[in-house]
Design a protein that fits this description.
Helix content is 35%, strand content 30%. The chain contains 3 helices and 4 strands.
Length: 99
């Protein structure tokens, strides 16, 4: 399992089963969480699981989450797994070069 091997950085599950949580609130809170807790993460590469309820445009939402994550970690981020109310991102150890 990836958890026991230490491959997972975190599981972000702000919404739980809250149908009324707006996407903007989720995105803002995820961004704030990364800003506040980034230094406390043991590793900076691996997997992040994000739980959500129903998102109208899941692709756009996932792209926004990926952009937030890439910006904070400065590394390449890709969608690894996707299911009905959850998806997993994979963070590589390679640094994004914006030049």
């Amino acid at each position: 399992m990836r958890f026991s091997e230490g491959d997972y950085l975190l599981k972000y599950s702000l919404s739980g089963s809250c149908k009324s949580l707006k996407e903007e609130v989720y995105l803002r809170n995820y961004s704030n969480y990364l800003d506040l807790d980034y230094e406390h993460l043991k590793d900076k590469s691996g997997y992040i699981i994000l739980d959500h309820y129903e998102i109208a445009d899941i692709k756009a939402f996932q792209n926004q989450i990926i952009q937030i994550t890439e910006k904070r970690f400065g590394s390449s981020v890709s969608l690894f797994e996707n299911s009905k109310n959850s998806f997993t991102l994979k963070l590589s150890s390679s640094v994004i070069n914006d030049h």
